[in-house]
Amino acid sequence: MANPRVRARLPLSARPLVWWLGGLILASAAVLVYWPGTSGDFLFDDFANLPALGRYGGVRDLQTFLYYLASGIADPTGRPVSMLSFLIDARDWPADPFSFKRTGILLHAVNGLMLYGILSALGRRLSADATRVRAAALMAAALWLLHPLWASTVLYIIQRQAMLAAFFVLAGIRAWIASRDAFDEGRPRAGWTWAIAAMPFLGLLAGLSKANGFLLPLLLLVLQVTVLRPSRAEDGPARRSRFLLATAPSMAIFAALAALGWEASGGNARRSFDLGQRLLSQPRALVDYLHQLFVPGLGNTGVFADSFVASSGLFSPWSTLPALFLVLAMALTGWGLRRSRPILACALLFFLAGHALESGPLMLELYFEHRNYLPATLIFWPVAWWLCAPGRYRTFRIAGGTAATLLLLMLTFAQATLWSDPLALARDWATRNPESARAQTYAAQQELSHGHVATAERRLVDNLARHPGEAQFALNLLNLRCQREMVARSDLEKAGHAIGAEGIRLDIVNQWLGSVLAPGSRHPCTGLPDTAVTELLQRAIPERPASAEEQARIADLLGLQALRRHQCHEAEMFFSVRLRAQPRPEAVQNQTALLATHCSPAVALGHLERYLDAGAPVARASSPALRMRDRMAESSWTRHWDELLEQLREDSSASQTGGEAGPPSLQDGPGSTATGSIDP
C-alpha cells in the first residue's frame, strides 16, 4: 500500500465524473426503490413527537417557532435540528405523511452519495489504483444504501433524526479528511478551517439532531488510528488539531459514558432490567445486527424490540458469552490490524464506536434496527475493497458484488412495498415477532380499523391467554368488548389483573384510565359502571407511590373520578394535590377548564386563585430543552392567567345573575394541549 500521507493523482482514465454519474444513478435507484413506501402512514413515536407542530396553534410566527423548537421530548437537547427539519414538510398538525416520507427518502439518498465521496477520499490516501478506489467506494456505498435493514429507518418518519445525525457526521468526516489533506499539503490555515468545520460545528449539528451525533470525535479518532494514520514527520498544527478536536473530545466522551454508567447503576424504575443486564445483552444485539447486515432477508424485526430478552447471566441465554467473546475479538482484531489492514480495522472499530452510546450504559431499550444506520456506514468497505482488487478473478468478484447489490435492491423494494400497506405490514410484523406485545397489539388495532373485528379479537384473546399480565392485550380487548357492548365479568377481571401487575407507572394504564374517567370522553369504555371503573382504578394504585409522578397521576385520576361522580369539592381537592406533587401550568389550565365546564365558573375561579396565591414553583421539566421552553413561556403564562381570571370572574357573575357562561378555552395557553400536560 502507498504511504498514507501521499495523495495519489488520479489518471485521466479514471474519469471521476463518470464515477460520480454512477453515484447519482445509485442514489436515484435508492429513491425509486423506497418510493412505494411514501403511501404509508404515521407510526408509534411519530405521534409522540410530531404533534408539537400544532401544539401552539401551528408554527406561524417567531414565538410559536421558538416554542416548537424547544418542545422536543427526546435527549436532553430535545433534538432541535431534527425538529427544525420537520418544518420542511408541515407547520401544523395533523399533517400528510407523504411529505415527511419523501424528505426522508431523499435524505437517505444524499447520505449514500456522501458516503461514496468519503470512501473515495479515504481510498485515495491508501492506494494509487484509482479504478479500485472508485469502484470499491461505489460498491460499498451501494451495499449500504440499498440494504433492506434501513426500511425501518428511512420509512419510519421520526427516524429522520437518526438519518440527519448521520448526515452531519458524514459531512464532518469529509471536512476532517479535507483538513488532513490540507495539512499534508502544507496549508495549515485551510487545515484548521476544515478541522473546525468538522469539530465542533458539524459535530454540534449532528448531536443536536440526535445524541449519537456527539460521537463524531470518537469516530474521527477511529479514522485517525486506521486509514488516516499520520507519518512521524507530521507537523505541529496537524498534531495539535488532532488532539484538540478529536483525541481530547473522545476522552470527554468516555468520561461522560462512565458517568452515565455510574448514574444508571442506581436503577431505573421504567425498565425491567438493570445496568448489568443491559451491558450483558448488548453484545448479543450487536452480533444480531451484524447477522442482519451480512445475511439480509425479509425477516427484519422492524420497529419492534420489546421481545428481545435481557441477559441475566453469562449463560442466560446461552448466546451471551459467545457474543461477548465475538465483540471483544472484533475490538482486538481491529486494533491489531490498524496498520497492516487499515480498511478492515476501520470498519470494525467504526462499527463498535458508533454503538458506544446506544449500546452503552444509557438505560435505553435493548434493541432497535435503526441504531445501525450510522455505525454500519463503513461495514461493507472491506468487502468491496477485496472484490475490486486487481487479479485473475477480478471480473467475477465484481460481478458477484453487483449481483449482491441487485439482490439487496429487490429485497428493499419488497420491504418498501410492504410498508405501503399498513394492514399487511402490521400482520407481517406480528408474524415475525410472535413474542412482541407491541407487534401483536398493533396488528390487532390495524385489523380492527380495517373491519376485521373477529380476527383482531381472536388475536388479543390468544395472546392474553399466553400473557395474562400484559396490559396492552387486556385493555385493548376490553376496548373491543366495550365497543361491541359485550363486556363480561371475566373481561374486567383480566383487565384488573393486568393493571395490577404494573400499576399506574405504566403509561398505557394511566392513559387508559384517564380516557375512561375524563368527563365527556368518547372512549368506548366510558359506559362501564362506576363500580367497575373504581375497581380497576384501585388495582392501579400502589400502596406506596414511589415518585412525585406517580402521586400526580393518582391525584389526577381521582380528581377525574370525582368529576365523573359530580363531586366538585372532591375533584378540586384532588386536583390541588396533583399540583402540589407536580405544579405545572398546563395541568392547572386543563383542571380549570374541566372544573368550569363540569362544575361552575366559581369553583374553577377558586381553584385557579388558590394555585396563583400559593406561588408554587413550576415543576422542573425533564430536559434542558423543555426547561428553556418554560422560561420562554413565563411571561405568556402571566398574561394568560390575567385573561383567564377576568373571564372566570365575568362568567361567575353571569351565572349568579342567570346569564350564560362558557368554559375557558384549552387552546389559549402558551403550553396547552388537548390531551393534558405536555411534560407531566
From TrEMBL:
The keyword Lipid metabolism does not apply. The keyword Transmembrane applies. InterPro entries: O-mannosyl-transferase_TMTC. Residues 643-680 are annotated as: Disordered. Residues 643-652 have a biased composition (Basic and acidic residues). Keywords: Membrane, Repeat, TPR repeat, Transmembrane, Transmembrane helix. The chain crosses the membrane at residues 17-35, 105-123, 135-156, 243-262, 318-337, 344-367, 373-389, 396-419. Residues 670-680 have a biased composition (Polar residues). This is Tetratricopeptide repeat protein. It comes from Luteimonas colneyensis.
